[in-house]
Amino acid sequence: MINKLVTKIKKTEAPIVVGLDPMLNYLPKHILDAKIAEYGETMKAAGRAIVEYNKGLIDAIYDLVPAVKPQIAMYEQFGIEGLIAFEETVKYAKEKDLVVIGDVKRGDIGSTSAAYATAHLGKVTVGSKKLSAFDEDFATVNPYLGTDGIKPFVDVCKEEKKGIFVLVKTSNPSSGEFQDREIDGRPLYEWVGEKVAQWGEDAMGDEYSYVGAVVGATYPKMGKVLRQVMPKSYILVPGYGAQGGKGKDLVPFFNEDGLGAIVNSSRGIIAAYTKEPYAKFGEAGYADAARQAVLDMKADINQALGH
Amino acid sequence: MINKLVTKIKKTEAPIVVGLDPMLNYLPKHILDAKIAEYGETMKAAGRAIVEYNKGLIDAIYDLVPAVKPQIAMYEQFGIEGLIAFEETVKYAKEKDLVVIGDVKRGDIGSTSAAYATAHLGKVTVGSKKLSAFDEDFATVNPYLGTDGIKPFVDVCKEEKKGIFVLVKTSNPSSGEFQDREIDGRPLYEWVGEKVAQWGEDAMGDEYSYVGAVVGATYPKMGKVLRQVMPKSYILVPGYGAQGGKGKDLVPFFNEDGLGAIVNSSRGIIAAYTKEPYAKFGEAGYADAARQAVLDMKADINQALGH
Predict the structure, then answer these.
(1) DSSP state of A207
(2) Contact criterion met (CB below 8 Å) for B101 and B138
(3) Does residue B191 sit within a domain?
(4) A80 and B77: CB-CB below 8 Å?
(5) Closest in A43, A127, A191 to B126, CB measured
């Protein structure tokens, strides 16, 4: 799957992943209202509205970008109906040949991580059948529990030719509280980055490993160091746009071949119509606004990279 | 909810939480076979079998223990049907007046943690209605992202009078890889423990805080230090039984009043019938075997604590 991701990034010339993180207040009013009219003020109305909104977004951007990244928390808050919406979103995006990164940030002790890996990337056995649950292409994973919390994910990745992105340095303001603390003269995130490189060593695609990393756009200097610590790991870079990261901040995350990083934007794309300069598209044009925001982001990044 | 947990621990004299982590191979054959006969080799068969198994367990132990802890990964691997089983398990346990600790180990940047907190402890707004999704009483949370990943959980806890247990020192073999690394002369888990104490300061129940911690039974010396670092935090202690922890290892996790810790056992209780000395109960007696295993665990812990 890392090979497919790299191929699609080259083809689209857009190292961009669109974060499908649907807050209800991002949804155009007519979409939610129609579902509430049909299902009442229920979880089902929310779930159905989210699916419609997402399908509109996917239809508008699937030819421009290699991947989407649904953030499962935004679906989980609507319970079962929300998770049905998550499942349908993953399926629809895959039908459009998009690579799907499940932003699930799971991680636990070995046997439990194995169950999470099964849930999101693998297959579970019922009787004589092997069945897939959510079946994303990649998942994000939390490293706090160490190697035996990560290994079950890597095993499933090798079996299924899928991938993970391990949290190394996150984009949020207080990420430094633990991640930046110095251990033998180097910050924790570097030690985690070193492990990411090791975990990926025996799980290599053609150019890059199945084991990638998450490093926030908001910390470009750290990104530069981590790019060197994990030369074969793709870096998933959140924090562009709404969280404050800009095109020029992204340069250190890329290798000299222009590969090695994929930048996420969520709100900045999916809710583009709520802000200038995209407000002119209006609520009804939310998907066209998203498309334009992707084109502008692509131009911003490629200009910064000197392409 | 921490007050209810403490009250129930005092009343049952059992600082024990039963981990409802149903692997399909723990289930008595007749339960799974019947559901496969009804629904085929499907996720639905797995989900329905898990609910029946769990209800049998809950019926057998609800008067003996204060709490149960369903591990969501074991449900999530069966997709939507698995999560329906999780939801029904939580509901059934609450009907039996058990405190429910959702072992979900979520954690993300602020806005995303807020959605997870809503999903598991809070309420989401759809139109004019406030609706609950999974509605556990407590959730486990991962600290890697720092304060702004935890704060949204604490806010919901205060609003809903619920609680969290933050991962501090986990029970797995490689937990030390990052958690034990020294920062200014003290291991990372102590720094995390200190933050747990701070996060809980303005979220106090009568005797203990809404913000507890997870510390593995497999590391009793570290438990002793952490008990002092976080005097007002309840410690959820996994790793007893199947993972290797014994009654005497648990003493350091408790305060002198005999409170302050609640010990989890999963396999050792719910799959007791598969191992000596409970094999005599047989598959059909899996719930009675679980009850006896709880009674033996209670005796082991109380003897170790000198009660």
Answers:
(1) S
(2) yes
(3) yes
(4) no
(5) A43
Encoded tokens for B93: 């346990």
Residue written as token pair 């994973």: A141
Collapsed DSSP state (helix, strand, coil) of residue A2 = helix
CA distance linking residue B224 with residue B231, whole number of Å: 11
- Per DSSP, B77 falls in state T
Q: Is B105 a catalytic residue?
A: yes
Contact status, residue A144 vs residue A135, Cβ threshold 8 Å: no
What's the CATH number where B18 sits? Answer: 3.20.20.70
Catalytic residue of the set B4, B10, B55, B105: B105
Distance of CA B226 to the CA centre of its chain: 19
User: Residue B241 has what pLDDT?
Assistant: 80
- The model's pLDDT over A23-58, given as tens digits with 9 standing for 90+, comes to 999 999 999 999 999 999 999 999 999 999 999 999
What residues are paired with B19 via a beta bridge?
Answer: B69
For residue A259, give its domain range: 2-304
Largest Cα–Cα distance of chain B, in whole Å?
60
Which residues, including other chains, have CB under 8 Å from residue B121's CB and lie 6 or more apart?
Answer: B135, B136, B137, B138, B139, B153, B156, B157, B160, B162, B164
Position B307 in a domain: no
The tens digit of pLDDT for each residue in A220-274 reads 999 999 999 999 999 999 989 866 778 888 999 999 889 999 999 999 999 999 9
What are the residues whose beta carbons fall under 8 Å from the beta carbon of A120, sequence distance 6 or more?
Answer: A102, A104, A106, A133, A134, A135, A136, A139, B76
- Can you read off the two tokens belonging to residue B123? 């309420």
Number of domain units in chain A: 1
pLDDT digits (tens, 9 = 90+) for B186-215: 999 999 999 999 999 999 999 999 999 999
Contacts of A107 (CB under 8 A, 6+ apart): A113, A116, A141, A142, A143, A144, A145, A149, A150, B105, B142
| Model confidence band, residue B292 (pLDDT cutoffs 50, 70, 90) | very high
Whether A38 contacts chain B with CB within 8 A: no
Residues A136-183 pLDDT 10s: 999 999 999 999 999 999 999 999 999 999 999 999 999 999 999 999
Tell me whether A259 touches chain B (CB under 8 Å): no
Interchain proximity A115–B147, CB inside 8 Å: no
DSSP H helical ranges for chain A: 2-12, 29-39, 43-61, 73-76, 79-95, 110-120, 147-160, 176-179, 188-201, 220-229, 267-270, 286-304
Locate tokens 């009907």: which residue?
B95
Tell me what the pLDDT averaged over chain A comes to.
96
In a domain, B107, yes or no: yes
